[in-house]
Design a protein that fits this description.
six-stranded antiparallel β-barrel, 239 residues, alpha+beta, 3 helices
């Protein structure tokens, strides 16, 4: 099993780790990592590994067996041997853009309070698919409402709920197509705002900014029809 440091320490950019295994496909498994593994519509992190006798560029990270995370080299190369201590370094600009987009998508689900049927996160844009038979009448009003929430600079934090607690509060789950991972006894929640100023609380294993003001200004792109009941709403970072 790999300790996923990104769940609690989203802003860690560099950390050590020890190689515990290699995958048959040539991935590297560490005892702990800051590399987010592809999942929930968010791409895996990229970056680099360095050790006494070499360096290696990492293209992405993926989930492996038994709770492990495999770091995938950008090209075939000699791997650090099992037991080697390595320094992990994130491509921070790319990760931070993912964080900004992912948090913005949570806010999009606030200004469009409809069930979510899909979504994806990219470094410059993201999208959510909604169970929305008719397109919104005023896209500009939605964009203005979204940017108003961003400008409130609300705190974004993570907390945990038990499997039983989530089952007792099904309204926390907004996604229809992807269910929160259950079975470990607890599920991570992302909270935006606090107390009476809370605007969102939902299960999520992704990485997020610490405050909504970090997102920056957002533009809404095309709203596309994706089937009889679905509309895809595209979102773009201004900078």
């Amino acid at each position: 099993m790999t300790m996923p440091l990104f769940l609690e320490e989203t802003y860690l950019r560099e950390v050590t780790g020890t190689v515990t295994a290699h995958t048959p496909e040539g991935g590297i498994i560490l005892d702990q990592t800051i590399f987010y593994a592809t999942g929930g519509g968010q791409p895996g992190d990229s970056g680099a590994l360095a050790w006494d006798s070499g360096t290696l560029q990492i293209a992405t990270a993926v989930k492996a067996e038994k709770g492990a995370i495999a770091l995938v080299p950008a090209e075939p190369s000699a791997l650090p041997t099992v037991g080697t201590e390595v320094i992990q370094s994130l491509d921070w600009d790319r990760r931070h853009r993912h964080m900004r987009v992912h948090t913005a998508l949570h806010l999009l689900s606030v200004v469009i309070p409809l069930p979510v049927t899909g979504g994806s996160v990219g470094p410059d844009k993201g999208r959510l698919d909604f169970d929305m038979p008719e397109a919104p009448e005023d896209k500009q009003a939605l964009e203005d409402a979204l940017n108003a929430l961003i400008e409130e600079d609300l705190p974004v934090s993570a907390k945990w709920i038990s499997d039983e607690g989530l089952k007792a509060n099904p309204g926390l789950v907004k996604t229809m197509s992807v269910k929160p991972p259950m079975g470990s006894g607890k599920v991570r929640l992302i909270q935006i705002g606090q107390g009476e100023a809370q605007v969102d609380l939902q299960p999520c294993g992704g990485t997020h900014v610490a405050r909504t003001g970090e997102i920056g200004r957002i533009r809404l792109g095309k709203i596309e029809k994706k089937g009889r009941q679905n509309r895809r709403v595209n979102l773009l970072l201004d900078l």
